Each structure stands twice: as C-alpha cells, then as structure tokens.
C-alpha cells in the first residue's frame, strides 16, 4: 500500500516551499504606498484577497467589480489587478506559494461566503497564518502548510457551489487585452499594435474596455506601465535610464516627462521619497529565518 507523503515535494524543506508567502493588511492602505495596490499590477504567485468587512472595487480580467463584506477574491499567478478598498474596509491580502496540494481556481473568481461558519473558518486560518512565526522551525512550517491546504479546500468548496458565468464577448476581449498588456509590458507597444494582435481596431478596443472597466484602454496601459516604473524605482537599484530602456521609452528624458505627468514627481524624487518611507519591498529568503509577515499594502 503506497503512502501519500503530503508535505514533501522535490526534496525541499517546508519553509522553502513557502517562499514568497506574504500577508498584508489592506485596511487602510498606507497613503504613501497606495499605488502598489490601487494601480494595475500582477503578482508572480497566486493571490487571495479576503474582505472581512466594508466594501470597495477591484479590477481584474479587464472588468471593474464591486465587493462587499465576506468576499474572497482568488487570482491565479500573473493575473493583473487593481484593488480600491473604501476607508473602513478591513481585510487581508495573501500571496500564496504554488503548492500541488493547495491548488487555487484556474481563473479569477470573486466568491461570496454566505454562512458564518465559512467566514469564521477563513478569518481564523488567515489569522493563524499571520502569526505563524519562524517557518524554518519544522512544526511552524508544517502548520503553515496545513493552513494553506485548508484555505485551498475552503475556496474549492465555495467555488464549486458558485459556478462561474460565461464571459460575454466584450468581457472576453477586455480580459484578453489585460493579459496582452502583461505580455508586451516593456516593449513600448501601442494601443494600435495590441489591437492588431487581438484582431480588433484600437477604436473598438477602447470602446469595449471603457464599457467593461470604466476607463480607457490607453489609460489602463499607461497606469500599468507606470506601476512597473514605480515598482522598479522603489524596489530595485536600477537607474532611471535603465528603467526607461527596459520599459520601452525612447529616451530617459521622455521617461522622466511621462513619469512626472503621471505622478507629479521626477523619478529621483519618487525614489528618495519611497526609500525615506521605509516601504521598499525585499525578497524573502526562507533560509534566513523566514517569518510570515503582515504589513500594510
């Protein structure tokens, strides 16, 4: 009789399998770092957003959707999204390690937890993950893995009970556009070029995206590019000239003008303000005493 070795994969210890896990309070979004969540961006790992109370809006799949209390939003790795909670919203954003024992829905889902038992279960699991402590400690690592698996199972049960509705053609196009923006990020692609890839005119693309997302396709493309510019200025030591080149700007001067128009700051002033605020994100090294963290977005 074979044994299922649930917590072993590729010979990695538990804490290394949890690398990249991060918990953030989304209430309130810190004023000096609101851009990190309120502008379109994508995470390299799956994301689960739990809204305990309050309301707000989220953009994903090229659509703007409202959310209320007791809502779970599951986003596969690489899904572009923008989160806009209202001032009294309380919730948690969890960036999940990709574990074969803990799959998340293959497409973005917004799920309502209607019964108090499920709500309490989700809140309790997230609270315990936030207090997981040093994940290099084997019992703590196993406990964190178990809680992620339980979160996955809870999401799967709820998603099964709330089958997704087929996307309309306009929504399908908006979702394809948002994904294509991720593919061409840094290539300096124009709206006309993206439209040609999707088989539509820029005019049709703009009209459709405005209807589904509430903003123009051009504005979304600019916002996504500027989020990446801000992220690199805040979290890396790349020069503004390097960032301008990597993001497809014709020259550093053009990048500086575009950045100033979008943010009201020069790249150097923005970097100095971010470094001064202590908001710089650093990669998690699980071999150096990894701890589950909970910090403002």
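^ Assign residues to that structure.
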């Amino acid at each position: 009789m074979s044994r299922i070795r649930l917590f072993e994969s590729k010979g990695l210890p538990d804490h290394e399998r949890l690398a990249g896990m991060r918990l953030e309070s989304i209430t309130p979004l810190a004023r000096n770092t609101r851009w990190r969540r309120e502008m379109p961006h994508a995470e390299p790992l799956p994301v689960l957003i739990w809204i305990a109370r309050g309301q707000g809006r989220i953009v994903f799949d090229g659509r703007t959707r409202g959310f209320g209390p007791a809502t779970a939003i599951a986003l596969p790795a690489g899904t572009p999204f923008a989160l806009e909670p209202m001032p009294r919203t309380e919730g948690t954003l969890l960036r999940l390690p990709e574990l074969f024992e803990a799959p998340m829905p293959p497409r973005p889902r917004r799920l309502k937890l209607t019964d108090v038992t499920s709500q309490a279960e989700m809140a309790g699991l997230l609270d315990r993950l936030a207090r997981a402590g040093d994940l290099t400690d084997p019992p703590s690592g196993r406990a964190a893995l178990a809680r992620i698996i339980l979160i996955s199972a809870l999401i799967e049960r709820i998603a099964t009970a709330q089958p997704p509705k087929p996307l309309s053609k306009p929504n399908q196009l908006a979702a394809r556009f948002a994904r294509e923006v991720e593919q061409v990020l840094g290539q300096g692609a124009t709206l006309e070029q993206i439209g040609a890839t999707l088989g539509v005119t820029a005019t049709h693309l703009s009209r459709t995206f405005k209807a589904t997302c509430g903003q123009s396709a051009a504005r979304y493309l600019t916002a996504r590019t500027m989020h990446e510019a801000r992220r690199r200025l805040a979290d890396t030591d790349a020069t503004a000239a390097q960032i301008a080149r990597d993001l497809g700007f014709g020259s550093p001067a053009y990048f500086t003008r575009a950045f100033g128009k979008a943010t009201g700051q020069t790249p150097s002033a923005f970097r100095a303000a971010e470094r001064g605020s202590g908001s710089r994100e650093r990669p998690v090294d699980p071999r150096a005493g990894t701890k589950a963290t909970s910090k403002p977005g």
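Confidence is low (pLDDT under 50) at residues 1-8, 282-297.
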